[in-house]
From TrEMBL:
Coiled coil: none
Iron-sulfur among keywords: no
Class of this enzyme: transferase
Originating organism: Allopseudospirillum japonicum
Name of the protein: Cysteine desulfurase
Matches recorded under InterPro entries: Aminotrans_V_dom (IPR000192), Aminotrans_V_PyrdxlP_BS (IPR020578), Cys_dSase_SufS (IPR010970), Cysteine_dSase (IPR016454), PyrdxlP-dep_Trfase (IPR015424), PyrdxlP-dep_Trfase_major (IPR015421), PyrdxlP-dep_Trfase_small (IPR015422)
GO biological process, one term: cysteine metabolic process
């Protein structure tokens, strides 16, 4: 097997203390990276360092610790700005994660820009986080949700997409990479099409930022949402990127401290961007940790990560396709390192439980993407998803584990 990548997963594994642990007395084989990734030592250390050495609330304090904490928090924002190549740090709003980012857009931009009868286009393969916020708005405002279809391989039908625009279309909301199928969607092309109709586009980047070099200016998307914990950072932190002109037109999301200039009972004025959208004390340590995760990924190199994960995906697809009775759901040529599959006569949940006994962590269930699973005629799949620290040996162990389970069940 020729491996054309500059990434050494064995060396990188040393950075992830958890990978040395055992599960059920077996070495941990962690293949649930689409749910959340493990954390490298520099991220863990950044959290410790903050709490140990300079814990303080940010922005308002004049004392040294407050200054250090503010500097680190705002520094993290700039690191993330560079990570996705945004034009300004003002376009980077810290939120809890992708889910909160999309709800923010629905409840601020959506509530002020949409009316009954307006149409939002989402795709068949969306995570529930990019479906339910629009359904809440449908209940609140009477908007319509139209669904971009997928083909048998699990790719979006771009001809159908183009034909779905009407004078009522106000927003496209689409995932960059599907967590359930692995498909990488052509979001740049989809953005260009949306813009031809003067329609803005929101991209759910939760599954893209750990695997691909994302450049929001090159994509030209209007909103881009992602979570820190899927890109080797802490939970409870993520980013909503939005073009400054759009943020300027949006009313605040939550009200409280940090997001104001002046408050009186008669009238309140709001802070400048980006703080207008960050009410209350934010997740300071988590933001700092996420900045360090972005540094880590940049240091390893997104091209190297993408190349390595592609090797893993190709190898695993070959090995797993050869297993009798195994069907891979989602076979787009342009895929990230996700293999969703079902097995004849073995329920996904049983497979997950039995593999766990062998130390192998995969995910089973609907992956918060029920519509697309139903479209493929299944209620649940088993899903193995790869990260930069996974190896061919781990895939061999997964394949051997699946064979073992099959034997046990037959
Ligand atoms: N979108 C996609 C494509 C996802 O995979 C996920 C997480 N599974 C989310 C949104 C939601 O992310 P979070 O739970 O971190 O808000």
């Amino acid at each position: 097997m020729s491996i054309d990548t500059n990434l050494d997963p064995w060396a990188l594994r040393e950075d992830f203390p958890i990978l040395a642990r055992q599960v059920h007395e077996q070495p941990l084989i962690y293949l649930d990276n689409a749910a959340t990734t493990q954390k490298p030592q520099p991220v863990i250390e950044a959290l410790n360092h903050y709490y140990r050495d300079y814990n303080a609330n940010i922005h308002r304090g004049l004392h040294q610790l407050a200054e250090l904490a503010t500097e680190a928090y705002e520094g993290a924002r700039v690191k993330l700005q560079h990570y996705i190549h945004a034009a300004s740090h003002k376009e980077m709003i810290f939120v809890r994660g992708t889910t909160e980012a999309i709800n923010l857009v629905a409840q601020t931009w959506g509530r002020t820009h949409l009316r009954a009868g307006d149409e939002v286009l989402v795709s068949m393969m969306e995570h529930h986080a990019n479906i339910v916020p629009w359904q809440l708005l449908r209940d609140q405002l009477g908007i319509q949700i139209k669904v971009i279809p997928v083909n048998a391989l699990g790719e979006l039908d771009l001809d159908a997409y183009q034909q779905m625009f009407t004078p009522q279309t106000r927003l496209v909301a689409v995932t960059h990479v599907s967590n359930a199928l692995g498909t990488i969607n052509p979001v740049r092309e989809m953005t260009a099409i949306a813009h031809d109709f003067n329609v803005p586009i929101l991209v759910d980047g939760a599954q893209a930022v750990p695997h691909l070099q994302v450049d929001v200016q090159a994509l030209d998307c209007d909103f881009y949402a992602f979570s820190g914990h899927k890109m080797y950072g802490p939970t409870g932190i993520g980013i909503l990127y939005a073009k400054q002109a759009l943020l300027e037109q949006m009313p605040p999301w939550q009200g409280g401290g940090e997001m104001i200039k002046q408050v009186s009972f008669a009238q309140t004025t709001y802070a400048d961007l980006p703080h207008r959208f960050e009410a209350g004390t934010p997740a300071i340590a988590q933001a700092i940790g996420l900045g360090v995760a972005a540094d880590y990924l940049t240091h390893v190199g997104l091209e190297n990560i993408q190349a390595w994960e592609h090797e893993l995906l190709t190898y695993a697809t070959e090995q797993m396709s050869a297993i009798e009775g195994l069907r891979i759901i989602g076979q787009a040529p342009n895929k990230a390192g996700v293999i969703s599959f079902v097995m004849q006569d073995v329920h996904a949940q049983d497979l997950g439980l039995l593999l766990d006994q062998l130390g192998i962590a995969i995910r089973t269930g609907h992956h918060c993407a029920m519509p697309v699973l139903h479209h493929f005629g299944v209620n649940a799949t088993a899903r193995a998803s790869f990260a930069l620290y996974n190896t061919f040996e781990e895939i061999d162990a997964l394949v051997a584990g699946i064979h073992k389970v099959r034997q046990m069940m037959s």
